[in-house]
User: What shape does this take?
Amino acid sequence: MARGGDGLQVLSALDAAKTQWYHFTAIIVAGMGFFTDAYDLFCISLVTKLLGRIYYTDTSKDNPGSLPPNVAAAVNGVAFCGTLAGQLFFGWLGDKLGRKSVYGMTLMLMVICSVASGLSFGHTPTGVMATLCFFRFWLGFGIGGDYPLSATIMSEYANKKTRGAFIAAVFAMQGFGILAGGIVTLVISAAFRAGYPAPAYRDDHFNSTVPQADYVWRIILILGAAPAMLTYYWRMKMPETARYTALVAKNAKQAAADMSRVLQTEIVDEQEKLDEMVTAESNTFGLFSREFARRHGLHLVGTSTTWFLLDIAFYSQNLFQKDIFTSINWIPKANTMSALEEVFRISRAQTLIALCGTVPGYWFTVALIDVVGRFAIQLLGFFMMTVFMLGLAIPYHHWTTPGNHIGFVVMYAFTFFFANFGPNSTTFIVPAEIFPARLRSTCHGISAASGKAGAIIGAFGFLYAAQNQDKSKADAGYPAGIGVRNSLFVLAASNLLGFILTFLVPESKGKSLEEMSGEADDAEDDAVGTRAVRPSGTQMV
Assistant: This one.
């Protein structure tokens, strides 16, 4: 018997297509959204110290200003809240209006808000921060839409054999976005530092922050619009995916015409066969139906909870970075540097971390995901993250004594290598493969939004939790917490839970999208008068 996508010639042609130029075009066009996303979300962490110096310095104090805890949380976190809302809204819209039309909206929103956030003005520091937060929320909203749409478009364009690697390559552009954020900040801060030399804060409180420093963070944020603008034209030229046109819009003729052009081969439109397929009883259930719960309920629970737990650990890394950098003397005490010197040092440290720990993990996933499968990579990733987190937590006192911090950095880098060569990549890929076409973008958006909820907990819950248990030793403005060591134990436990919940998620390696979602199987069953429904993800033999 035929396997899952063979019912319609247009879907079979996509599944069996050799890797061609259009695949790489799709990776770059979809990947640029992620490049921009990573750049925008990441570069704010590089300039928060500078914002504190410019807007909150009291020159009568011995140390330069820093953002108050509530302002720091808002500036860093408001984009996450926007992303969560954008993932749900644009995920739903992508299934209603089509991937392509919504894709252009998200990109324009990212461009406009990147520029606007760099032009945040106000008469008071609070006014500037409020304007910045407003535009960063809407920037996040646009970025949120890119998650379900990029993943869905790439999965629907890809062939069966290398689909995992293609979706992983789109996601891996995040690594380059992080790297670009670090390099751009390095170059701009170095140029301004050379043009406007300034003394260290302890030598001259007033002149250590030159007035021109205010341009630095604005230029860095505005440049986030560049990669998105460059790909806008190509996004608009991409045809709608054949799976959406055929299975959701029910237009076999248009799907065949679009894919004949893309694949440069003649494809027959099979409207009758398509009508048979999409009107099958089992191909019409909605997201909140009992049928969806029976077929895909556990899958959605699996993809959402694993992404949620992964992001708690992944985004908590910000906690340890400043401690690590200070302990290994990559970043000296704030009062020994001028404002631009500090930005330069922070971006240099972050760029090195990205180069060594972040980027390689993504590309290991690209290389191996279609060889060993999603399930094995996700299990291995969660397991190794648990091991390394415990390796940091149990002998925590040992790591913090002078002379041992290099070991700490190595353990820390391995934790995040296995996040990227592991659940950080697979939790993005799998939801784009296992749900029906008419609900694919929505389900991916729900899974991604669960992840962002975890990110908010990881980045902010732990910012408070990791404070010293002795209030007098906690950072200025923060209450006492449970300490870094106990926080690491909590993170190890969340990784272990992620390992267990991975067993709810099916393996999609080498199977067509229709085979995973059960769409083609059911149409064939109905065609021969059979009402028996196979569990989703099984093959026809």
